[in-house]
Specification:
The complex is a heterodimer. Chain A is built from 16 helices and no strands. By secondary structure, chain A is mostly helical. In chain A, helix 3 runs antiparallel to helix 15 and helix 12 runs antiparallel to helix 14. Chain B is of the alpha+beta class. In chain B, helix 1 runs antiparallel to helix 5 and helix 3 packs antiparallel against helix 4. The chains are: A mainly alpha, B alpha+beta.
Chain lengths: 450, 173
């Protein structure tokens, strides 16, 4: 990378000490307390709404959701796919861009990894809630069953259990391993004995021994190497949950790659939605520069085109297959009762990102934020269209129906946004949102080259 | 009071590397370096073996994957479901879970190996007695010549470290 590009990724005049101070003061000194308490409080209220709607669901059963035959997969699956897709950008940024030596990942990787974890936590809730009898969730695991039963390992739904739980665990591990040296920094900068002890225990007594760094660096790069195919496999398997069903509108070989592209697309939109306000509130412009935003905008545009190709391919395949059921579903999507949702997704996911061709709009935080918000909505609507429109008109017109979420569907969905934001605000409050160790290394290199 | 070692603090990784070079030239081999971020030059001068973590992750991952495949093969035969005479050993559908468990075991055993090799968690260490050592996780670079070093008692140990050092002190056990 050229010298000028390197400088753009870090504000001028940044040294090791300014990096240490600027990042560690957020968890240690709790700046902007009013902002934090108000935002966390609002998120916490939504989280309480989630608890209430889950309780009601457990008492009354999944009838409180609007799902029924023919539309047995409603918001729960839409939200599951939406949340897990959001998580994918975090792993993409922290693992794939690390392997590709993209230095611009450094200041955003920690935050996006946290985003991944919390998004996977929200996603993981939905299949459990959707079971109807969540107390039997363990039936999905291979445990020594007295009746000699096994999970059906040939089913993508069982693959999904393994994929999502592996993804959640490995993401947590990768995030924690990355945090260890930073926790040691917080321990050594903490002002009170209590904080020093907490961060000391969490850092496991890390002391920066060069022999430890040798093991550590090797492990870190290997975890990135393992997480890279993992993230691609997870959404491919989610895609196969649909594609393996012999249902017009789902039964398509394009699904796994198209789902992966959609996941990274929606994830980058969420990263932008979160990072732009965060950097303004905590004055992190020297670390998350306009260059970062521009690069993320470019990824958004690229993956947006991949998703557009997926939509095109679905229609092409329907036409080219000569299968009248496929053709019916495709036409029904575009001009049927859910046409409004379909054209919303075309506007949000295909047209809106095209504004980013303009360099002025791409480097402007506000316009980028607006486009990212639109894409967030668009990707949710996309999953709604994929799930609902394929189901709502079954082969026989006697089994046709309509589905719109009930108020409990919406309460659960908005509630998981509360869960996600609550966890995110706790993370910002207590842990370094930017990797101090990696930024320090970058600042030292910049200082040496000046 | 028995000494743990002689600890010297430097402002940059280059000065630390110079001191390590001087130690090596004088035949010292029992010393450790502490840095706020991994540095290639310091790593090259370290009197330590290469890390075995790559092998650990490879072997653990392969075992995990083999175990996962065996589990699925076993389940397919233990609870046989005959679907129109299709083979019970339907290997293509066993690939995803085999892959996932390869990644899972490789990562977790690898992380466990890091803690075993680094003897962590270890919340107390003689070096934490030095007030200067707080900066090892922030902006200073340290070398510690251990008391186990045969040349430790020689008076020129301190001289070898002094060039560029901001502080030299003996840390007790």
């Amino acid at each position: 990378m050229s010298e000028s590009a390197q400088t753009e990724l870090l504000g001028p005049g940044e040294t090791v000490e300014t990096v240490n101070t600027a990042i560690s003061r957020i968890p240690l000194e709790h700046p902007r307390p009013r902002f934090w308490w108000l935002s966390f409080g609002a998120a916490f209220l939504l989280l309480m709404m989630l608890m209430a709607s889950i309780s009601y669901l457990f008492v009354r059963g999944i009838g409180v959701w609007g799902v029924n035959v023919p539309i047995a997969w409603g918001f729960a699956i839409v939200n599951f796919v939406w949340w897990i897709g959001i998580g994918h950008a975090g792993t993409f940024i922290s693992a794939i861009l690390l392997l590709l030596h993209q230095k611009w990942r450094t200041s955003i990787n920690r935050f996006t990894e946290a985003m991944t974890l919390f998004a996977v936590a929200c996603a993981g809730l939905y299949p459990l809630l959707h079971l109807g009898r969540p107390q039997y969730a363990y039936w999905l695991a291979p445990y020594p069953d007295t009746m000699g039963l096994w999970p059906q390992f040939r089913s993508p739904l069982v693959w999904d259990v393994f994929a999502v739980s592996t993804y959640g665990s490995v993401s947590l591990l990768y995030w924690y391993v990355g945090l260890i040296p930073d926790l040691a920094t917080l321990r050594d900068r903490a002002s009170t004995l209590f904080k020093r002890r907490i961060y000391g225990v969490m850092s496991m007594g890390w002391r920066g021994d060069a022999r430890h760094w040798r093991h550590y660096e090797k492990l870190y790069i290997l975890l990135a190497g393992l997480a890279t195919p993992l993230v691609l496999s997870v959404h491919s398997i989610v895609g196969m949950d649909f594609a393996v069903a012999i249902l017009p509108g789902w039964h398509s070989t394009i699904f796994p790659p198209y789902f992966v592209a959609g996941a990274i697309f929606s994830g980058f939109a969420m990263v932008l939605t979160l990072v732009i306000p965060l950097r303004a509130v905590y004055h992190l412009e020297a670390y998350i520069t306009n260059r970062h935003l521009e690069l993320m905008g470019k990824v958004l545009m690229t993956t947006g085109w991949m998703v557009a190709y997926g939509y095109f391919s679905e229609f092409f395949t329907a036409w080219y297959s000569g299968d009248k059921y496929e053709q019916f579903v495709a036409m029904n999507r575009a001009i049927g009762p859910y046409a409004g949702e379909f054209w919303t997704l075309v506007f949000c996911n295909i047209l809106a990102p095209q504004f980013l061709w303009s360099r002025r709009l791409r480097t402007n935080a506000i316009s980028l934020f607006i486009v990212a918000l639109i894409v967030n909505v668009g990707m949710w609507v996309e999953r709604f269209v994929i799930v609902i429109t394929s189901l709502h008109r079954d082969f026989l017109p006697s089994s046709w129906g309509m589905y719109h979420g009930t108020r409990w569907d919406w309460a659960t969905f908005i509630g998981t946004i509360g869960l996600f934001l609550s966890l995110l605000f706790l993370f910002i409050r207590f842990l370094p949102a930017i990797s101090i160790t990696e930024m320090r290394q970058m600042a030292a290199k910049q200082g040496a080259s000046e | 009071m028995k000494p743990h070692g002689l600890l010297a603090m430097y402002p940059t990784a280059e000065l630390l590397a110079d001191a390590m070079r001087r130690l090596r030239a004088a035949g010292y081999s029992h010393f450790e370096a502490y840095t706020p971020y991994p540095d290639e030059e310091v790593d090259d001068l370290l009197p330590a073996k290469p890390t075995p973590i790559g092998w650990v992750v490879l072997i653990a991952g392969l075992l995990g994957g083999a175990g996962a495949y065996f589990m699925q093969w076993y389940a397919a035969h233990d609870y046989a479901i005959n679907v129109g005479g299709r083979p019970l050993h339907s290997w293509p559908s066993f690939v995803p879970i085999t892959f996932e468990l390869t990644v899972l075991t490789g990562s977790f055993v690898g992380a466990f190996a890091l803690f075993v090799l680094a003897r962590l968690p270890r919340l107390d260490h003689p070096l934490f007695q030095s007030p200067q050592f707080l900066r090892a996780s922030q902006d200073r670079f340290f070398v510690c010549v251990l008391a186990s070093e045969p040349h430790y008692a020689q008076p020129n140990t301190r001289d070898l470290l002094s060039d560029g050092a901001e502080n030299i002190e003996e840390v007790n056990l």
